[in-house]
Write a structure and sequence with these properties.
The complex is a heterodimer of chains A (310) and B (337). Chain A has 310 residues and is mostly helical. Chain A is built from 14 helices and no strands. The longest helix of chain A has 36 residues.
């Protein structure tokens, strides 16, 4: 188990390093921060001074080595706009983002999994079909469209909820719904197919042949097996807690990490963008690592992979 | 003879309108071993899954399955669930997939003991150990903590058997119990089933496509073809002198150790349930088919005491292998295609 974890952890570190490198290269090839931050009418001497100050006049590989060295020392750089440590600025935004994504995750789990299980248990019924149609809609509609529809209905027409901004619980409802419904739909579809797959297995018939009531067969035999593939998707949802709200934060002008990312990319505030991407990669990779460990807990066949059948 | 333990009457099963079982009458008496033989798709497994209401909801089941005078097909589901594993145990073909991969043996065996014997706690552990001993699993105490993937196919089938007899059933239905196992293990499992039947006094229904397996283990045999019983009788006379050409064909298709003897396969395939041939379902593949076979489907009739056959030509001499089938297909065979 330790060895397995060590291998996974090493892979996770490599993944993060690759993401950081990719972001570094793309950002520096795709626009000049000096012009974007200082403005086009600034005299050339000022631009040159700006580039010198931020090390942008160095060859890209020198910049990269410096940047990577700094990361290893825990230094994620300074914002070029605000001249404050990037990590500090990003950290200030995280609570706002989590205030949306955590309730949305709870909504996804609380709605998606029961609906998927129920639909699978009533396959072919009107309920099943209704859930699947709703799931396809929830899955296919882009979140900005859903967000705008919700705003039109609940803010413009009914006037029940604010269309944007932050402050009260009422402000959170529409963004959380927008985030949660799409994920719930995906989770319902996935849970349903995982459950159907398991319900068709011979061991389910065995459990029935033993005389167990259907509810006990579902609870004791089907759900533990269907949980194994479902955990993968749940892990992905958990991994996107930080970065999953970019579009929704922009639509609802919610001051979270996602909106900060959009602004920072547009102005090429390199340290901020890189800091957010590093954070996103780290959460995603960590949650994958947790999923891998959970697999071992849920599925005894993976727990001691090396031990052959007696 | 005493009253039967289970009596199946006029059982029919259809999937989406395609008949899989077309009127089966069968009785199993207390303590006897009945073999059900036939090719894949003959309805032998479906008959018993239907009897215990283990088929998916889309299966249309009709007829009666009487246990102590109660019709299992008409009982409320909770009463059927009490019968499953309690009065009638069942084991399946592939033990590796019939056991739940994520649960320990202790749990899978223990839930039968809790359900049907009302045991709990330490009593479950003790009885589970005794059962594993009984089915010949060495080191039973340790094996209780194993998962199915940690054991061999033969051991898993022994666990399945232990689970099926844990509720002390009067009848054990074994659906192709040795098909997925190595030949050497097959014999051990059959010996175990025979020994358990003697010791526990339970009846056994052995479903198999393997005539040798059935001949060794069973008192009585029912041969099924295309969803019906075509011949039934005591095992030894039935195999020595079959009264139905299909049984004859199955026997001739058995490999022997005599290399000089050629295998005689039954020509053709089992008919498509959606396009059954007129008259006898076996007629298109039968070397003895005659015009009379294309009329009404022959019913299962008593031929000799205790022997039943559903052949339109009951006076056929089947002592010798049949003549080679004609080179040109009979008109009835075209109707199949």
């Amino acid at each position: 188990m330790l060895r397995y974890l060590a291998v996974r952890a090493f892979r996770a570190a490599v993944t993060i390093a690759l993401v950081v490198t990719f972001a570094f290269v793309v950002l520096r090839m795709s626009g000049d921060p000096a012009i974007l931050i200082m403005g086009p009418e600034v005299p050339p001497e000022a631009l040159a001074a700006f580039r010198r100050a931020w090390g942008l006049d160095q060859p890209i590989w020198v910049q990269y080595v410096r940047y990577f060295g700094a990361i290893l020392n825990g230094d994620l750089g300074m914002s070029m706009r605000d001249n404050r440590p990037a990590i500090e600025m990003v950290a200030e935004r995280i609570p706002a983002t989590l205030a949306l994504t955590v309730p949305a995750l709870v909504l996804k789990l609380a709605v998606g999994i029961p609906l998927g299980v129920w639909a699978a248990l009533h396959q072919g019924t009107g309920f099943d079909r209704a859930v699947m149609v709703a799931a396809v809609f929830g899955f296919a509609i882009p979140s900005f469209v859903l967000a705008l529809v919700l705003v039109l209905v609940f803010s413009v027409d009914l006037g029940w909820l604010p269309s944007g901004g932050q402050g009260t619980v009422a402000h959170m409802i529409l963004p959380v719904l927008t985030l949660g419904l799409g994920g719930a739909a995906a989770l319902a579809r996935f849970t349903r197919s995982a459950m159907l797959e398991v319900l068709g297995r011979p061991y389910i018939r065995t459990a029935s042949a033993k005389g167990l009531p259907w509810a006990a067969v579902v609870r004791g035999h089907a759900l533990p097996n269907a949980a194994i593939p479902t955990v993968t998707l749940v892990g992905f949802l958990v991994g996107s807690l930080i970065a999953g709200a970019v579009v929704v934060e922009s639509v609802f002008s919610w001051p979270g990490v996602g909106r900060m990312l959009v602004v920072a990319v547009a102005s090429r505030d390199l340290a901020i963008v890189q800091c957010i991407l590093l954070l996103v990669a780290a959460t995603m990779v960590t949650s994958n690592l947790v999923v891998d460990v959970l697999y071992g807990v849920l599925d005894p066949r993976l727990r001691h992979g090396a031990r052959a059948a007696a | 003879m005493a009253a039967p333990l289970v009596r199946i009457e006029g059982l029919t099963v259809a999937f989406d309108g395609a008949p899989a079982v077309r009127g089966v009458d069968l009785a199993v008496h207390p303590g006897e071993a009945v073999g059900i033989v036939g090719e894949s798709g003959s309805g032998k497994s479906v008959t018993w899954l239907a009897a215990l209401r283990l088929l998916p909801a889309k299966a249309a089941v009709a007829g009666r399955v009487l246990l102590d005078g109660r019709d299992l097909l008409a009982l409320p589901l909770p009463e059927v669930e009490a019968v499953r594993g309690g009065r009638i145990g069942m084991i399946f073909q592939d033990p590796a997939s019939a056991l739940n991969p994520v649960l320990r043996i202790r749990r899978q065996l223990g839930e039968v003991l809790a359900r049907h014997r009302g045991l709990s706690g330490a009593a479950i552990a003790a009885e589970a150990r005794r059962l594993l001993d009984l089915v010949g699993i060495p080191d039973a105490a340790r094996r209780l903590d194993s998962y199915p993937h940690e054991m061999s196919g033969g051991q898993n089938q022994r666990v399945m058997i232990a689970m099926a007899i844990a509720g002390q059933p009067d009848l054990l239905v074994a659906d192709e119990p040795t098909t997925a196992l190595d030949v050497t293990i097959q014999a051990q499992i059959l010996d175990l089933l025979a020994a358990l039947r003697r010791e526990l006094g339970m009846a056994l229904v052995l479903i198999s496509h393997d005539l040798g397996v059935v001949a060794e283990t069973c008192d009585r045999v029912a041969v099924m073809y295309a969803g019906r019983v075509v011949e039934m009788g005591p095992a030894e006379p039935l195999f020595d002198a079959p009264r139905h050409p299909y049984t004859r064909g199955l026997l001739d298709a058995l490999p022997t150790l005599d290399a000089a003897e050629r295998l005689v396969a039954i020509p053709g395939v089992v008919p498509d349930p959606r396009a059954m041939p007129p008259g006898c379902a076996f007629a298109p593949r039968c070397a003895h088919a005659a015009p009379v076979c294309l009329g009404a489907e022959p019913a299962l009739r008593a031929t000799l005491p205790g022997r039943w056959s559903a052949c339109a030509r009951p006076d056929l001499d089947l002592a010798a292998p049949p003549p080679r089938p004609p080179a040109t297909p009979a008109p009835a065979a075209e109707a199949v295609a």
